[in-house]
Write a structure and sequence with these properties.
Layout: H1 4-13, H2 22-41, H3 45-65, H4 70-81, E1 86-89, E2 92-95
Antiparallel strand pairs: 1-2
Helix pairs in contact: 1-3, 2-3
């Protein structure tokens, strides 16, 4: 991720990287997800780009607060789903 280190440095400069801030960071992620939902509801591409970016920023910070790397988390998730089988029903993948 190109800007991951920029986000981590910004968060460090703002004093956000303390583990005790994790739940507050999680709440911030949920708030940003609400903005994504709003953008989708309004079919607003610019707001969607901003919202998804904000979610990624909050997740990078949340990972770092817990001594994790966002890319390692993504790799873990990929390894969990890459061989899943199932089908898509009404736009939702249902695993076997």
């Amino acid at each position: 991720m190109r800007n991951k280190e920029n986000v981590i440095n910004w968060a460090d400069n703002k004093g956000l990287l303390k583990r005790e801030n994790s739940f507050k960071q999680f709440i911030k992620t949920v708030e940003e997800m609400g903005e994504v939902a709003n953008a989708l509801n309004k079919d607003n591409k610019e707001a969607l780009i901003d919202g998804i970016g904000d979610v990624v920023v909050t997740l990078i910070i949340l990972a770092k607060q817990n001594n994790l790397d966002i890319e390692d988390c993504l790799e873990h998730a990929w390894n969990e789903i890459k061989d899943r089988t199932g089908k898509t029903v009404n736009g939702v993948f249902i695993k076997n």
